[in-house]
Design a protein that fits this description.
mainly alpha
Amino acid sequence: MTVPVFAQRCVRCQFITAIKAVQRLKHQPLNTALSLERPMASEEDTYTMMDILTADEPDADPAEDLIRQEDYAYCHEIVQQELSPFDFRVFMGYVCGKSYQQIAEEINGNVKSADNALQRSKRKLRRHIMSKQDMSVGMFRNYLIIQQLILREKEEPKIDQEGWQDMVDLLRESIA
């Protein structure tokens, strides 16, 4: 049985098309790509490339880091201007997560004076944010987070996950 000329031509064209497609290397990036779910170091390691790419790095974007530094410097200046040195010490003690009793011992006073200074500080800062509108609440929240990290880093070199959550909860309470 002879194959018609047209069928031979079709088969030959299909072979040529297939060879050209393979030689074009159109899908080479997909064929040679590494999986994002593949372990980084060894097969036992559970740390993957996806973990690195999706990590919440605060310093991942240099522009955001610069803005955060400028915001921090501005907020720190405002806090120092608005608060008296006594109120500032009490406020920073509270931001660091110290109890009223610990703050009272540091200032050589009683718990009531620490509480009054803290309430006065909150009122002054809230009034400044609302009236001047030169800083947003989010900007001030970032300032408190950075300030607390600085203060805690001085006291304890490493902050664990529970410490981080405690810090966030404390900041929410202090801003409210």
